[in-house]
TrEMBL record:
The keyword Membrane applies. Involved in the high-affinity zinc uptake transport system. The lineage of its organism: Bacteria, Pseudomonadati, Pseudomonadota, Gammaproteobacteria, sulfur-oxidizing symbionts. This is High-affinity zinc uptake system membrane protein ZnuB. GO terms for cellular component: ATP-binding cassette (ABC) transporter complex. Keywords: Cell membrane, Ion transport, Membrane, Transmembrane, Transmembrane helix, Transport, Zinc, Zinc transport. Belongs to the ABC-3 integral membrane protein family. It is a multi-pass membrane protein. Its main location: membrane.
Length: 263
């Protein structure tokens, strides 16, 4: 039991750091619909991982990366609006995932845990995977922090400075795809977006700078996930919804405080 709790806490903290930091860019870029769409595509990634026998993480990464690149390509064509493109891909991938799971999923497939998370499914290999993604995403964010921030807060100035907008857009979307790939087992396919949106929304209330907002977002995410995990284990209920309820309580609390954001 002690090993099980330790794995759950380690996984929760690692995912909170990744999602809390990237979520700030999602808020600044107003890309919540994109993160929601790519989380829906995770179900297709799960089903392909099961079909191929290569595992959930492999299927999630392949589908997430493909999804992100296709969206960027279609956005450049400007044939459809961004929300239309995201809506089309979101519903197609979600439907394909459901159909494939229905065809190949056996009696041992736990659909509820895929949709809403299951801390019991976390293994030592998953912990290694989560922290490998954490190191990769953290390194990319630190390396390209100024450029990503400039393109996020003032895209015209960033392009005028010689930055490749499409390249950094793809890079950011790939990081979101990696985040989704490691978050499924904690919060499930349907609730991943909450980890990317709610902590930064809370942190924004108390922050005076982008770096401060990232730090507060990570701390908020860790607190909420630990509270959610504790409630999930104590009451024997789904992990994902419990974490989202904790985030919701923190968000409501932040909104009634008299502090005003400057970010």
């Amino acid at each position: 039991m002690e090993g099980f709790i330790l794995r759950a806490v380690l996984a929760a903290v690692g995912i909170s750091i990744i999602a809390g930091s990237l979520g700030c860019f999602v808020i600044w870029k107003r890309m919540s619909y994109f993160s929601d769409s790519i989380s829906h595509s995770a179900l297709l990634g799960v089903s392909l991982g099961l079909v191929s026998g290569l595992g959930l993480h492999f299927g999630l990464i392949v589908v997430g990366i493909t999804f992100a690149i296709l969206i960027v390509i279609l956005q450049q064509r400007q044939f459809l609006s961004n929300d239309a493109i995201l809506g089309i891909f979101s519903h197609i991938s979600l439907s394909l995932g459901i159909v494939i799971l229905a065809l190949v999923g056996g009696a041992n497939t736990d659909y509820f845990s895929l949709l809403f998370g299951d801390i019991l499914s976390i293994s030592n290999q998953d912990i290694i995977w989560i922290y490998a993604i954490l190191i990769l995403v953290g390194t990319l964010l630190i390396t390209f922090w100024q450029r990503l921030l400039l393109l996020t807060l003032n895209e015209d100035l960033g392009v005028a400075s010689g930055l490749n907008k499409i390249l950094y857009q793809i890079l950011f979307m790939l990081m979101i795809a990696l985040t989704v790939s490691v978050s499924v087992q904690i919060v499930g396919v349907l609730l991943i977006t909450s980890l990317l949106i709610i902590p930064p929304a809370i942190a924004r209330v108390f922050s005076n700078s982008p770096a401060q907002m990232v730090l507060f977002s990570i701390l908020t995410s860790i607190i909420a996930v630990i509270i959610g995990l504790s409630g999930s284990m104590y009451y024997d209920i789904a992990t994902g919804p419990t974490i989202v309820i904790a985030l919701g309580a923190l968000f409501i609390t932040s909104q009634v405080l008299p502090t005003q954001s400057r970010v």
